[in-house]
Design brief:
single chain, alpha/beta, TIM Barrel, eight-stranded parallel beta barrel, three-stranded antiparallel sheet, binds 3-methyl-2-oxobutanoic acid, binds zinc ion, metal-binding, LeuA/HCS_post-cat, amino-acid biosynthesis
Length: 506
């Protein structure tokens, strides 16, 4: 059996998804979840891109001990220095440097010849290897590059010290058979390639990223680059959960395995979706709400008789705990709460645990039956409030179909209570306007959505709000049995994140 290493790029390529903007705390939560999942390499960001990226990578490098931490950088000295500065504290750091190799990129983007690219790549891999023993080299747009050129280039970067060669299909143009043959050609012809890991990195523009990645490993690749929920540039990257479960489910046929603890996949997907604000489509393989739902009578009948009739993987194997049983109640204490989370694979740091317990206690005052799904939502929500934040003290709404909606809010910041009222076309608009007046900021609302966490009249409503400022999008979330309270808190959460982001940028 061949082991396939999982290289997760949710925090780098995934963070390049339009509208995704994770703060430091959120990046760290995702990194911890990836570490618990058993991801071999976490690409934590692109330190040269911004101070926020640098700090994100650096914090993750300090905190994560069981996964290699990679930082992306262009093939320039200053980029490499910045990347190394961010990851040098890691238990296992990796510099991931790249340069484009395709004729299109050389002509229109880099204005360089193949010889110049080769010289730069070799020089920069040599330089990076003086700083860090683990250097990955990526040939951007490799699939549209001249394969003979790649073979020559890869042979030389291996001699220069690269330990991993990445062969991306940057624009998602490949078809599975062609990508297979392309990787095979490189594996068969590159001098010294048996000493290094060969990596595939496929984008999903034609919906083939997972298929192409699997073709790549069948052709000899030993590392797959992927992202949770398939996040990434444009149509995204290969989805981590699909790659992992394809290998796991067909391991005997493929002769391969990964080190991923598959029961953490569902939870990690939920966390990434909640923090990124990118909703997972219900019919998505492995982590979609309907991935294990059997609707037709014939299918239901078959599954009741014997699960394997229509089920090739079980929900439990990916950690989907699908019951509406009452799990905890009003009298459950801190210890029962944390043991329950632990039993279900959720390990929180002390501060996050205290915050979650606090929210749990408030919830038990308002909701009779607390189910697993409530707890799941409660743990992944509202944990990212920066300090010094605005907090909702109270709100009052006057509404109806014959009167103008009016909302008064009281919001606290630094011990000062700000009270404002506003009217609007409906309760949500009046509430949002009142919040804007209180925080002294007009916000551009990009999206608003609400969904109920469980069934029943006392179900919790989870509201997601996206606001935009200077081209950046901020996602606010909140959970409550009262949809107006959840809506106001979600907006305040987004405003807090926006303020935090611009304060840190100063
Ligand atoms: O898609 C791509 O080519 C990349 C590289 C920078 C690895 O993301
Ligand atoms: Zn990419």
């Amino acid at each position: 059996m061949k082991r396939i290493k999982i290289f997760d790029t949710t925090l780098r390529d995934g963070e390049q998804t339009p509208g995704v903007n994770l703060n430091l705390k959120e990046k760290l939560m995702i990194a911890k979840s990836l570490e618990n999942l058993g991801v071999d390499i976490i690409e934590a960001g692109f330190p040269m891109a911004s101070l926020g990226d640098f700090q994100g990578v650096n914090t993750i490098a300090k905190e994560i001990r069981n996964s290699t931490i990679a930082a992306l950088c262009r093939a320039t000295k200053s980029d490499i220095d910045r990347a190394y500065e961010a990851i040098k504290v890691a238990q296992s750091p990796r510099i991931h440097t790249f340069i484009a190799t395709s004729p299109i990129h050389l002509k229109y983007k880099l204005n360089m010849t193949e010889d110049e690219v080769l010289e730069r790549a070799v020089e920069m891999v040599k330089y990076a290897s003086t700083l860090c023993s683990d250097v990955e080299f990526s040939a951007e747009d490799a699939y549209r590059s001249n394969p003979e050129f790649l073979v020559k280039l890869f042979g030389k970067v291996i001699k220069a010290g690269a330990k991993v060669l990445n062969i991306p299909d940057t624009v998602g143009y490949a078809l599975p058979n062609d990508y297979h043959d392309f990787i095979k050609y490189i594996v068969n012809n590159t001098e010294g390639i048996e000493k290094v890991d060969v990596s595939v990195h496929c984008h999903d523009d034609l919906g083939l990223a997972v298929a192409n990645s699997l073709s790549g490993v069948l052709a000899g690749a030993t590392q797959v680059e992927c992202a949770v929920n398939g996040l990434g540039e444009r149509a995204g990257n290969a989805s981590l959960e699909e790659i992992v479960m394809a290998i796991e489910t067909r391991k005997n046929h493929l002769g391969m395995y990964t080190n991923i603890n598959t029961t953490g996949l569902w939870r990690t997907s939920k966390l990434v979706s909640s923090l990124s604000g990118v909703v997972v489509q219900p019919n998505k393989a492995i982590v979609g709400e309907n991935a294990f739902a059997h609707e037709s009578g014939i299918h239901q009948d078959g599954v009741l008789k014997e699960k394997s009739t229509y089920e090739i993987i079980t929900p439990e194997s990916v950690g989907k705990v699908d019951n509406n049983n009452i799990v905890l109640g009003k009298h459950s204490g801190r210890h029962a709460f944390s043991s329950y989370l632990k039993d279900n694979g959720i390990v929180l740091e002390q501060e996050a645990l205290e915050e979650a317990f606090d929210r749990f206690k408030k919830l038990t005052d308002r909701k009779k039956t607390i189910t697993w799904r409530d707890i799941e939502a409660l743990v992944s929500n509202n944990v990212t409030l920066p300090q010094e934040a605005y907090k909702l003290v109270s709100f009052q709404i006057l509404g109806g179909n014959k009167i103008i909606a009016t909302t008064t809010v009281e919001i606290e910041k630094d011990g000062v209570v700000l009270r404002e009222s506003a009217v609007g076309d409906g309760s949500i608009e009046s509430a949002f306007k009142a919040v804007e007046k209180a925080v002294g900021k007009e916000v551009k609302l990009r999206d608003y959505s609400i969904h109920s966490v469980t069934d029943g009249e006392d179900a919790l409503g989870e509201v997601t709000v996206k606001i935009e400022e200077s081209g950046e999008v901020f996602v606010g979330k909140a959970l409550s049995g009262d949809v107006m309270e959840a809506s106001i808190n979600a907006l305040i959460n987004a405003v807090n994140k926006m303020m935090d982001y611009f304060d840190n940028k100063k």
